[in-house]
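New to this. Look over this protein:
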Amino acid sequence: MEASAQKLSVTRTIRASRQRVFRAWTDPELMIRWFVEADWEMSVCRIDLREGGHYRFEGAIGGRKWAVWGTYLEVRPPTRLVYTWIWEHDDVFGDPTGDTQVTVEFRESGADTEIVLTHDRFDSVRAREDHAAGWKTCLDRIERLLSE
């Protein structure tokens, strides 16, 4: 993982085709299975996968609500996604993290896929570190899902 005060980058190689990984990242039925941590709940997973389209995820952890939403800025199946990332309310982490941006690149590596995720425009080191831990867990879970 590479990180600056406002940006983090995570790279992970997944044993699955780029099409499968991209689909898992953009299909609500699959995303709900890997996106949240084991002790979290996701009750809403809506995705309008087009440039200018919106997504919205809602759930709870320990009875405390969380929600994140944003707009797709770039959609290039199966190679790249760029979207805004906004915590609407943040009973879980405290202060909202503001309008950040996520870029996910899906690179072919033989039969595998290298995911290069960059999340930037954080307003604090703590927000960046919290998201780095969350993305690591998400990538662990998508890797397990796609190895089934």
The chain has a mean pLDDT of 89.
